[in-house]
Design a protein that fits this description.
Elements: E1 3-5, E2 10-18, H1 25-35, E3 61-67, E4 70-78, H2 86-93, E5 98-104, H3 110-126, E6 136-141, H4 151-158, E7 165-167, H5 176-195, E8 229-230, H6 232-240, H7 244-249, H8 254-257, E9 262-270, E10 282-289
Parallel strand pairs: 2-4, 2-5, 5-6, 6-7, 8-9
Antiparallel strand pairs: 1-2, 3-4, 9-10
Length: 290
């Protein structure tokens, strides 16, 4: 389920890495996280248990292009592979916009791959979603192992919907970026068809554009405010010259009638003669400026 943030003009899509236990889901996200620049990534959250290295999820936003002027971000999640944590897998899978199924290429893991893929289909169906209609790709991980099955066998046994697949060795970082790029393209295409009329606007970078002119420095004055002493008569004359409309507005909250107004407090010191030689009293006049 895509999330819209009108304040930041961002839409966020969710990609879930799914697969059997110890197939390399967390390793994929860890490699992506480590190779991204620091300003283009968020915090990665991970919880480990005795039976599985990832209990809940790894979280990572990635900046992509824009759709109708809205910046697109992708959050990456993994699910625990052990069957014991199926309830947690359902929770993390909820609202997924795309799925990366990570399969273990080793021959002994074939049945685990098939069972996990069927579990993915069932869990999505329980949430009213159909994997055949959700953007997803498959990664054949651990291609460097000596007992890795031929890709043709894996395609036939696991890839039920004929989606794009990517050979990989996540421990070495091979195929990790290609897998993420492949699923990201599917997500952008899906979002563009739903919300942008099929158009994805890539970020525009002006390589040869001159740098913007420097802003003038902000000079903060430390000079004390000049205060004018007024006699009682002069003060009354100043007040009488205030238009009636402004005087009325002074008794009404500024927000009610002047949405773009500002209030400035001006200190005024009364003449000493009003207080028989006592210390002068300082008052403040509020000026309402439209």
């Amino acid at each position: 389920m895509v999330l819209f943030n009108a304040a930041t003009k961002e839409l966020t899509a969710k990609i879930v890495y799914y697969g059997p236990g110890l197939c390399g889901k967390t390793t994929n996200l860890q490699h992506v996280y480590d190779t991204l620049p620091g300003d283009g990534r968020g915090k990665m959250l991970s919880l480990a248990t005795q039976t599985d290295r990832t209990l809940f999820f790894d979280f990572l936003p990635i900046d992509l292009g824009t759709i109708r002027g809205m910046k697109t971000r992708i959050q990456l999640y993994t699910v625990p592979g052990q069957v014991f944590y199926d309830a947690t897998r359902k929770l993390v899978l909820r609202g997924a916009d795309a799925v990366v199924f990570v399969a273990d290429s080793q021959a002994p893991a074939l049945e685990s791959n098939k069972e996990s893929f069927q579990n993915l289909i069932v869990n999505l169906k329980d949430q009213g979603a159909d994997l055949a209609k959700i953007p997803h790709v498959i990664q054949w991980n651990k291609r460097d192992t000596p007992n890795a099955l031929p890709i043709e066998t894996l395609e036939r046994e696991v890839n039920m919907f004929g989606v794009p697949t990517f050979p990989a060795c996540a421990m070495r970082g091979e195929g990790v970026r290609e897998t993420l790029t492949g699923v990201a393209k599917l997500v952008l295409k899906s979002l563009a068809e739903k919300y942008g009329g099929g158009v994805v606007e890539e970020p525009q970078v002006a390589l040869n554009a001159p740098p913007p002119p420097p802003r003038p420095p902000v000079v903060e004055s430390t000079r004390p405010l000049e205060v004018e002493e007024l006699s009682a008569g002069e003060l009354l004359e100043e007040i009488e010259e205030i238009p009636a409309e402004t005087e009325t507005a002074a008794h009404v909250p500024a927000q009610a009638h002047m949405p773009h107004s500002s209030v400035v407090e001006v200190p005024v010191v009364l003449d000493k003669s009003l207080f028989n030689g006592e210390n002068p009293v300082e008052i403040k006049l509020k000026l309402y400026i439209r």
